Amino acid sequence: MNRRKIGAQKEEQVCARLLSEGIVIRERNFRCRQGEIDIVGSDGDFLVFFEVKYRSGGSMGSAAEAVGCAKQRRICRVADCYRMLHGCAETTPIRFDVVAIDGEKVSWIRNAFDYIPR
């Protein structure tokens, strides 16, 4: 199975879990010039941007470690684009979560990092 197919499969699993936890999925694979966000959802009043990372083994580090500073900045820029295109108020609370999948172990890291302004 190729990487893209595995990634899509893992995102499906994550969406199922998020839905079971009460998250409303607003959009998947939102793309703009700044990049892509895997899943955009709502958790109560929060607009949540989810990054899904999968690692089959530990040779490349953990899945969570793959969401470093540069990736976080890119996600924040894409989140700005999403908020602007969808008319979200500046006062809408936002959160950045990472769902890290290492082999079969799934870790949902809520509020994994803070918003990084441009």
Structural topology:
Blueprint: H1 3-20, E1 24-32, E2 35-43, E3 46-55, H2 69-85, E4 94-102, E5 105-113
Parallel strand pairs: 3-4
Antiparallel strand pairs: 1-2, 2-3, 4-5
Shape: globular
pLDDT averaged over residues: 93
Q: How much strand?
A: 35-45%
The count of domains is 1
**What structural class should be given to the helix and strand makeup?**
alpha+beta
CATH architecture label: 3-Layer(aba) Sandwich
List low-pLDDT spans. none
Main pleated sheet = 5 strands, mixed
What's the number of extended β-strand segments?
5
Any idea what the radius of gyration is? Answer: 14 Å
Describe the structure.
The chain is α+β, with helices and mostly antiparallel strands. The protein has one domain (3-113): Trna Endonuclease, Chain: A, domain 1 (3-Layer(aba) Sandwich), CATH 3.40.1350. The chain is 30% helix and 39% strand. The chain contains 2 helices and 5 strands; from the N terminus they run αβββαββ. The protein has helices spanning 3-20, 69-85; strands spanning 24-32, 35-43, 46-55, 94-102, 105-113. It has a 5-stranded mixed beta sheet with strand order 1-2-3-4-5. The longest helix is centred in the first third of the chain and has 18 residues, at 3-20. The protein is globular, with a radius of gyration of 14 Å. The termini are far apart. The mean pLDDT is 93.
